[in-house]
Design brief:
- It is built from 8 helices and no strands.
- By secondary structure, the protein is mostly helical.
- The protein has 2 domains: 46 residues, no CATH class; 73 residues, Orthogonal Bundle (Arc Repressor Mutant, subunit A).
- Helix 1 packs across helix 3 and helix 5 crosses helix 7.
- It is elongated and about 60 Å long.
- The protein binds zinc ion.
Length: 138
């Protein structure tokens, strides 16, 4: 009966990030449903283990912009997959203007930095796919 709660909803419940009605709906479901409670415990245990879904990372950091040095690390491709996914999400989906401006500025600086041509090429190659269809490059 309570299988309609997704993991993402349970994660949001743990973060107290759901609307009040949804919070109390899950709370009352938890009282009568041992399997839902064990799912919640499993999610909580996984979080304690340091594994976070993109949704959790976003909720935890949505009020916090990445620092300029984190954006620089992102451009160089040296962040963990989760950090890079968060920054890509922040820039591309959240569309934070401040960070996009910072990011563009850093990218311009990287364009004048002759020390890292390989990394620069890699970055532009990976972003080129977003700007034009694959077949246009032939
Ligand atoms: Zn931002």
């Amino acid at each position: 009966m309570h299988d309609d709660f997704s993991d993402a909803e349970l994660e949001a419940y743990l973060d107290e990030a759901l609307p009040v009605a949804a919070m109390s709906q899950i709370e009352s479901a938890l009282r009568g449903d041992a399997s839902l409670a064990s799912r919640l415990a499993a999610i909580n245990g996984r979080r304690d283990g340091g594994l976070h879904s993109l949704g959790e990372i976003w909720r935890r950091h949505r009020l916090t912009c990445p620092t300029r040095s984190e954006l620089g690390s992102y451009l160089l491709g040296v962040l963990s997959a989760a950090q890079a996914a968060y920054i890509a999400f922040h820039l591309d989906l959240v569309g934070c203007r401040c960070c996009r401006a910072n990011h563009d500025d850093l990218r311009r600086q990287a364009g004048t930095d002759a020390a890292a041509p390989g990394r620069r090429r890699k970055y532009f190659a990976s972003s080129a796919g977003y700007l034009q269809p694959e077949r246009a490059k032939q």
